[in-house]
Write a structure and sequence with these properties.
14 strands, disordered N terminus, alpha/beta
Length: 329
């Protein structure tokens, strides 16, 4: 229906949900949708039969009239999102990141090419998916979606940031791909933290080396900075939660002030955030860069911390990469 020229959807009052400090990003995302629903009356949620796995079960319970079940048909869901968006409704398309890859053609044509205002939010990204194993661990999604023209790509670091990012994407006119996460996430950001699409944030000052991270690797980068501090190394930590459009000004500033970089992401080192940073650096002022990420291989089943250790994504590996980058100055 139309009200004051704006598409709105009939609804009930939102229940109050109190998030826990150990929320996963997917649970924080689902709870945030419920909180935002009364304020933003023109968005709906699409599900591919895994609401319990993406956190949107909270929204399904609170706003069933704004929840659309597509079953295990992700390609149809993406295409339908483009159609819904053409009417002024904003669809949140939710599924696992690997299943988004199944629907890349529809995301590209029905959403990005058509410039539809659709928000794709994918849980279970990277090796942090853990015991679900290689078939569910998407380590290619950032590369795939950042290559689509006009697609914004986000990877928030903790429950607070995904809460802020969810409202930010509602206020952005255009297609967005955003990672959430399967595992419980440590809260690392302060209550006054500001999120802005396209802007990186310095979480820890430092002059010897810059650690640029996104998603779950931000917490590990902060831990790595603590390890380095014990040896008198001042590591700057930057949260690059927007992978596209990249904050090139922040990167240039860090290169100028610290002289070397380490990138850290729960993603293949080919085509992800690290590649994006390297592309920006080589076009401005080249410097030593070390990349922490999955090294062009599939993962395996295990607890997230165990898998991260095996594939070299933990704080210890980030700290070692920082020492290598500094030695190359």
């Amino acid at each position: 229906m139309e009200a004051s020229g704006k598409t709105v959807i009939a609804e009930a009052s939102a229940p109050l949900l109190i998030g826990t400090s150990g929320d996963s990003l997917r649970e924080a995302f689902g709870k945030t949708l419920v909180q935002l629903a009364p304020k933003y009356t023109n968005f709906v949620v699409f599900d591919a039969d895994i609401a319990g796995g993406t956190g949107v079960h909270h929204f399904r319970k609170a706003y069933p009239q704004r929840f659309f079940q597509f079953g295990i048909a992700e390609q149809n869901m993406m295409a339908a999102a483009g159609g819904f968006a053409s009417t002024g409704v904003i669809p949140f398309v939710t599924t696992f990141a690997v299943f988004c890859l199944r629907a890349m053609e529809q995301a590209r044509l029905s959403i990005a090419y058509a410039r539809r205002n659709v928000k794709i939010v994918a849980s279970h990204p990277g090796l942090d998916t853990g015991p679900d194993g290689a078939s569910a661990q998407a380590t290619e999604d950032l590369a795939a979606f950042r290559a689509i023209p006009g697609m914004v790509v986000l990877s928030p670091a903790d429950p607070l940031e995904i809460e802020l990012a969810t409202e930010a994407v509602l206020n952005y006119d255009g297609p967005i791909y955003m990672r959430s996460g399967r595992s419980k996430a440590r809260r690392i950001l302060e209550p006054g933290y500001k999120f802005e699409i396209g802007k990186a944030r310095i979480l820890r000052p430092g002059t010897d080396v810059t650690l640029i991270a996104c998603g779950v690797e931000v917490a590990r980068a902060l831990d790595a900075a603590e390890l380095l501090a014990k040896d008198g190394i001042a590591a700057r930590v930057v949260n690059m939660s927007t992978v596209k459009p990249l904050d090139k000004e922040m990167i240039a500033c860090c290169v100028e002030e610290t002289g070397c970089l380490v990138t850290a992401e729960d993603h293949n080192i080919l085509g992800g955030m690290g590649s994006a940073v390297a592309e920006a650096v080589v076009q401005s002022r080249p410097c030593p860069i070390e990349m922490i990420g999955v090294r062009d291989t599939f993962g395996e089943s295990g607890e997230p911390d165990e898998v991260a250790e095996k594939y070299g994504l933990t704080a210890t590996y980030i700290a070692a990469a920082a020492r290598r980058a500094m030695a190359r100055k």
